[in-house]
Amino acid sequence: MAVAAAPYEGVFQRALLELKFRRREVLAELLARPAIAAFRRASRNHGVSAAGEFPAAVVAVPVPFWRGRRRGFNQAELLARQVTRELGIPLVRGVLRRRSRPPQTLVSPSARRRNVRGAFRAGRLPERLAGRPLLLVDDVFTTGSTVEAAVRALIRAGAGPVDVLTVARAVSAASR
Q: Which CA distances in Å does 78 have to 29, 35, 44, 121, 125?
């Protein structure tokens, strides 16, 4: 199950860009609220999660080391912290790592899947999470290539079903 709170436009787009590029970290809490509400609605409508049970933990989509170092934070992790507080489940850090690749925003939509192929490596999951459902958190769902690659890495590492939660989802002009 992939859930997004809103289309990536208007106030959500502006707020996410402010969070990501102007380090307006206070926006993470405000942006996480509608995402959490959307996840709760979807969970009720789809039998809690794709696995039929509540996620055991939250994992944030990581940024490459150098990008996190330059920015000083990972916007997905800031959002994930809010999700964990509200849902009462732990945030698991360091399990998923991202190799350096060009940012997805600089790659054409048709090349994004190739760009993230092999970009994620998942370490060994803590034993208490092996086979358990997880919730992967990111800021924006555009083509789905990033979260798909991250989900595959988590499942290879032993996770059960992985649901995805984002603040916004890009809407193409063709789908309007």
A: 8, 13, 25, 21, 21
Identify the burial level of 57 via C-beta atoms within 10 angstroms of its C-beta, where 0-12 means exposed, 13-18 middle and 19 or more buried.
Answer: buried
Residue whose structure tokens are 């034993």: 127
Topology (CATH level 3) of domain 12-171: Rossmann fold (3.40.50)
pTM: 0.87
What is residue 155's DSSP assignment?
Answer: H
For the CA atoms of 49, 50, 56, 59, the dihedral, rounded to the nearest 10 degrees, stands at -100
CB 60 within 8 A of CB 140: no
DSSP per-residue letters across 44-81: HHTTSSTTSS--SEEEEPPPPHHHHHHHSS-HHHHHHH
Judge contact between 131 and 98, C-beta under 8 A: no
CA–CA–CA angle 33, 153, 123 (5° rounding): 95
48-57, 89-98, 121-130, range with the lowest pLDDT: 48-57
Amino acid at residue number 50:
A
- Token readout for 80 is 């994930």
